Amino acid sequence: MKKKIQKGLAPTSKQLSLLKFVENSTQDNINIANSTIEKMFTFSLLLLSGCLFILDKYIISKEIRLIIITGFLLAFFISFVGLLPYEKDIDKTDVEEIEEYINKTLNHKRLFIYLSFGIIVTAILIIMIGFLLEL
Questions:
Q1: By C-alpha distance, which of 43, 25, 51 is closest to 82?
Q2: Distance between CA 48 and CA 41 in Å, rounded?
Q3: CB-count burial class (<10 Å; 0-12, 13-18, 19+) for 2
Q4: For the segment 4-15, what is each residue's pLDDT rounded down to a tens digit?
Q5: Domain for residue 9, yes or no?
Q6: What mean pLDDT do residues 46-71 have?
Q7: Three-state DSSP class for 8?
Q8: DSSP 8-state symbol, 94
Q9: Does the reported pTM lie above 0.70?
Q10: 21 belongs to a structural domain
Q11: Is there a domain that residue 85 lies in?
């Protein structure tokens, strides 16, 4: 049985404060996730451009350079897609559907944060391995 927001009954002050807290907390979580993805976007672009400029001057093989640059480019695109809003039509009077939408929005953002971070770390490790192999 779906819970619907009851109309016509005045909520208690405790219910109002809890609703306000949940609303602010949820909005803060989404804002933090967006801010993190923006930073990953900038960081991956910075690393990509740095690699294009710096790695050309070192003796890392072309294959490893290609893998590294592809990794940073992939992290850049993943973080860009993560910046896009999660969209879904919902019934705004259905509490369960609203909760599900909020959870899916946060999970959507987290997925792109983890993917972008994982690819950036992997590319950095490949850079380090590339330097070690060429020594």
A1: 43
A2: 11
A3: exposed
A4: 556 667 767 776
A5: no
A6: 77
A7: coil
A8: B
A9: yes
A10: no
A11: yes
